[in-house]
Amino acid sequence: MPQNNTVQLSQSGRKQAFLFSSGLLAPDSPIPADLRSPHGTALADRYNIYRNNVTVSLINAVASIFPAVQRITGPDFFRAMARFYIRARPPSSPLLFEYGRDFAEFIEAYEYAQTMPWLPDVARIERAWLDAYHAADADGLDPAGLAAIPQERVGLIRFTMHPATRIVRSLYPAVSIFSQNRADGEVLPVDDRPEDALITRSGNQVQVRLLDTGAAEFLLALSDGAQLQDAAQVGLGLNPGLDLAQLIAVMLEANVFSSLEMDQIDD
Amino acid sequence: MARTHLIRQQPAGKAETLRFTPLRVVGQAGTSFKPEHFAAILEDPPQQGFFEVHAENYMGAGGPAHASLESIRRDYPVSIHGVCMSLGGPSPLDPQHLERFRLLVERYEPAMVSEHLAWSTHENVFFNDLLPLPYNLTTLLHVCEHVDRMQATIKRRIFLENPSTYVAFEHSTMSETDFLAEVVKRTGCGLLLDINNVFVSAANHRFSPMTYLESFPLAAVEQVHLAGHTEQLDSEGQPVLIDSHDGPVSDAVWQLYETIINRCGPVPTLIEWDSEIPDWPVLRAEALAAQQILDRHGATGQVRDAAE
């Protein structure tokens, strides 16, 4: 071959890959010039196989992360929306379980989804569900450890959250809509109210719970490192009826925490 | 406006690190491991065979995916099959992805590690498909550099898989088999011979699969893949085969497989089935069919030690 230097060779490789890839997510761009197919076959059809594989596999990846959104919109609406999404914001990581972090924001701006203002929040719950699924392993907090703490010192506890724990807050009934559409059952009317979701992993099962008013603020305060007594003030300030004992029992069952600690007290 | 709250956590350490024993894969047929089959596999009495996983599906931090793979790895040899390293692209390999791959190999101590002669990422976009490359000196240097880098990072010999393709390139100056032979010579890697890919490419580029296999560097083959394909007609009514992995292995591919095993000996063989996934007994039956051929011809062929 001619005396091309390595730099030129490397550039020609990049140019070739650029040419091949540039049309994959752009249906109107021309077929790359250096492709060949056997005599008699349509070259465009051959290149379109790659276009189709890329497009369909990425749409399928979005569909597998957001099944409730797809059930709400129906598959035709969903796949059209996902096609716009993958072309506008294709994945940068080869780990597809990390894809779709900005899908909720995309839906918020998507012209045809404006009649479903709660849809982005359902997508946020589904994205958090997958994050909880792949989150790091850690032992949950042993309820016996909490029970052993003397009553007068319980208020001083600080909790460490389990790596899977997530909270999604919505101005819409996103948790009820998510729960009904993540499964195959009948879809019933829901009350129009704000809802907060707690997403956890317990026994390697991802769980989504609807939180009482004030509970999200309570948990977020704990997550920020507040002592239990201060977090309780935050929750009770928003909802004087919040049953903290019952809430903590449910949190233990849900595996919200992985450990606890207490500030040293000088005796 | 809703927000997802990333709850503040301390980094979690795993309580125990499992230590796995090496398990033999020579002369064995395996299947793709699909999470939907996990319960059925556990109910089966322990048997021969191995399971292959796509590396990227197990690159999360923790959770059920790792729990099920740990359980499988206790009883069976595991093959880790990378789909996204982009060895065939011109860009440098992603150091983060290499490190994730290294950790996965360290954790599961797989019997086999493989990747593709293809690329899937360019300029920070991941296309989620195995894209083709021209075969010439430029791409040969890229691929060899990438295979060297991957083998050095994971401290293992990898098996490079021949692709299924739908187009060829004007800038190709070598045959695919010569290209693979040269990569083997320069990097010391092994080859994963996907016989369905050979059949699909042969039909799509109008050459004989046997002619291709005659020129394939069979001495370097350490693993075989078998899978199903589908046939379409293009806009001019010409048939084109799609490497769809969504059905049983075709009769023609079984015949090629038998010829290859007769010649190569009992090379570990995987049934791939990635879409329209059947119930576990159907997939297992496909692997048992491969096992019969391995048992029938394997002992008469040139017996070689695969990676153990």
Distance between the termini of chain A: 85 Å
Strand order of the largest sheet of chain B: 2-3-4-5-8-10-11-14
Q: How many domains in all of chain A? A: 2
Q: Give me the Rg of chain B, rounded.
A: 20 Å
Q: What's the CATH class of chain B, please?
A: Alpha Beta
Q: How do the strands line up in the largest sheet of chain A?
A: 3-4-5
The Cα radius of gyration of chain A reads 25 Å
Mean pLDDT of chain B: 92
The overall pLDDT average of chain A reads 93
Given as residue ranges, the uncertain stretches of chain A (5+ residues, pLDDT < 50) are: 1-5
Helix content of chain B: 25-40%
Provide the CATH superfamily of chain B. Divalent-metal-dependent TIM barrel enzymes
Plain-language structure description:
The complex is a heterodimer of chains A (267) and B (308). Chain A is of the alpha+beta class. In chain A, 48% of the residues lie in helices and 12% in strands. Chain A contains 11 helices and 6 strands. In chain A, strand 4 (195-202) and strand 5 form a beta hairpin. Chain B has one domain (29-300): TIM Barrel (Alpha-Beta Barrel). Chain B starts with a strand and ends in an 11-residue tail after the last helix. The model of chain B is unreliable at 301-308 (pLDDT under 50). At the A-B interface, helix 1, strand 1, helix 2, helix 6 and strand 3 of A face strand 1, helix 2, strand 6, strand 7 and helix 4 of B.
